[in-house]
């Protein structure tokens, strides 16, 4: 370790600055994974450095926005030690992009699709320039990533925007949104009954009872009230409204779930690796039209119950904790250093981070809805004994996103 890589004794260092410092020592060999200013791309950090090199789940000392001085050198050393495999990863990325152009592939973002596969190739096969079979291996990866059965985004857009289909689809939307809701009888089983033991000893009979008694549908009744869907983080509107069919979508600018067009609602599932499990485009669109008018804008009662359970479990993040599941989620949330700091010294963290901490419940429900919606489209059920993993995993995912935004905010502040 050179003197220039040493952290100031006794002071924490912004994690992003330490990553940049280590990255600058790797040289031009990793340039395909970096930007014009010589720093790693945000996707490089998110897809390669974090999960594959630093591995903060196993090394929590590397996870915080500000890394303690005693861990700063270790973080830099870890990235520098990975230099050869990162250089090979960059080289494989160039090989895959070249093969992609030759194949005329335009779907998906190459960084999202290939970065982790390139790291895998680099780890197993080393530098592609030393591999006589590099082109064949790149072609196999492209085939595995892209040659899937199932519907495509292009097919979705073509079907929805075809003038021959628009009248029928519009009639289906009007009919779905004008239909009166079915009455729901009161239930005898409460979500809290299941949440009390779902993390340690889940009771399938309790979950089945919630589904049979339509607890999810009953729990969605208040979403039609003015401001309720907005308070849940699922809409920016005063009331959920009939969606339009739409025609375009972009991951970076998707509206909140209840504000999306039919095309936007189906866009993300059609860009994942699981689209081979989806129905064909005409069936998908017609099902989504009906789903958009249902309670929680979901079709299956089991999924609606999952949203009700998540809403109750996450309520403790912003209020009083009641029940085992809520206490566990609250404990995970409060163990985060940036959360404690925002609560203890709000003026010491950027406003964007404070907004994340204040809005964690809404972010959680949005993420839970997206995952439940995706499972519905793939016709995957959530078993009762796997439900806690879903509820806990959503919070972990929200926390990781908020950490990323915190790092970006601290880097901008340091650069300024």
Could you walk me through the main structural features you see in this protein, from its secondary elements to its overall organization?
Residues 219-252 are annotated as: Disordered. Residues 233-242 have a biased composition (Basic and acidic residues). The chain has 20 helices and 2 strands. It is mainly alpha-helical. The chain has 3 domains: 3-81, no CATH class; 85-146, no CATH class; 181-242 and 293-415, no CATH class. The protein has a two-stranded antiparallel sheet with strand order 1-2. α10 packs across α15. The chain starts with 12 loop residues before the first strand and ends with a helix.
In helices, the fraction of residues equals: 55-70%
Computed Rg: 24 Å
The number of helices is: 20
Tally of individual domains:
3
Residues in β-strands, percent = under 5%
Record keyword descriptors for this entry.
disordered N terminus, 57% helix, 3 domains, 416 residues, single chain, mainly alpha
Which helices and strands occur, and which strands form pairs?
Elements: E1 13-14, H1 15-24, H2 42-54, E2 66-67, H3 69-81, H4 83-103, H5 110-125, H6 134-146, H7 153-161, H8 166-178, H9 191-195, H10 204-212, H11 215-219, H12 228-231, H13 262-267, H14 281-292, H15 301-314, H16 324-334, H17 337-344, H18 351-358, H19 360-377, H20 387-415
Antiparallel strand pairs: 1-2
Helix pairs in contact: 1-3, 2-5, 4-5, 4-6, 8-14, 10-15, 15-19, 16-20, 18-20, 19-20
Region (Disordered): 219-252
Biased composition (Basic and acidic residues): 233-242
């Amino acid at each position: 370790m050179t003197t220039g890589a040493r952290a100031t004794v006794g002071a924490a260092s912004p994690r992003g600055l330490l990553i940049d410092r280590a990255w600058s020592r790797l040289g031009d060999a990793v340039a395909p994974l970096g930007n014009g200013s010589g720093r790693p791309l945000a996707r490089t950090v998110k897809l390669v450095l974090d999960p594959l090199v630093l591995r903060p789940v196993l090394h929590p000392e590397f996870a915080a926005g500000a890394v303690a001085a005693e861990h700063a050198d270790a973080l830099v050393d870890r990235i520098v030690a990975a230099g050869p495999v990162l250089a090979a990863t960059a080289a494989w990325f160039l090989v895959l992009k070249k093969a992609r152009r030759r194949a005329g592939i335009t779907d998906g973002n190459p960084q999202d699709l290939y970065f982790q596969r390139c790291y895998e190739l680099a780890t197993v096969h080393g530098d592609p320039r030393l591999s006589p079979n590099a082109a064949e291996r790149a072609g196999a990866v492209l085939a595995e990533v892209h040659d899937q059965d199932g519907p495509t985004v292009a097919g979705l857009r073509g079907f929805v925007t075809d003038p021959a289909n628009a009248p029928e689809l519009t009639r289906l939307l009007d009919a779905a949104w004008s239909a009166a809701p079915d009455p729901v009888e009161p239930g005898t089983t409460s979500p809290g009954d299941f949440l009390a033991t779902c993390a340690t000893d889940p009771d399938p009979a309790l979950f089945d009872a919630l589904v049979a008694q339509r607890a999810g549908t009953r729990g969605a009744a208040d979403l039609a009230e003015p401001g309720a869907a907005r308070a849940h983080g699922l809409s920016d509107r005063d009331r959920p409204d009939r969606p339009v069919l739409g025609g375009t979508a972009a991951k970076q600018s998707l509206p909140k779930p209840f504000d999306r067009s039919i095309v936007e609602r189906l866009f993300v599932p059609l860009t994942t690796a699981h689209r081979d499990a989806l129905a064909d485009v005409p069936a998908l669109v017609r099902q989504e039209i009906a789903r958009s008018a249902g309670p929680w804008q979901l079709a299956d009662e089991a999924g609606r119950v999952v949203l009700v359970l998540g809403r109750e479990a996450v309520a403790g993040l912003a209020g009083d904790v009641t029940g085992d599941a809520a206490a566990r989620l609250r404990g995970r949330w409060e163990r985060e250093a940036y959360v404690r700091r925002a609560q203890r010294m709000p003026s010491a963290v950027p406003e964007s981070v404070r907004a994340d901490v204040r809005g964690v419940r809404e972010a959680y429900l949005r993420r839970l809805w997206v995952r439940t919606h995706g499972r519905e489209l793939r016709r995957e059920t959530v078993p009762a004994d796997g439900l806690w993993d879903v509820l806990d995993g959503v919070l972990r995912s929200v926390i990781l996103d908020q950490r990323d935004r915190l790092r970006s905010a601290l880097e901008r502040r340091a650069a300024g």
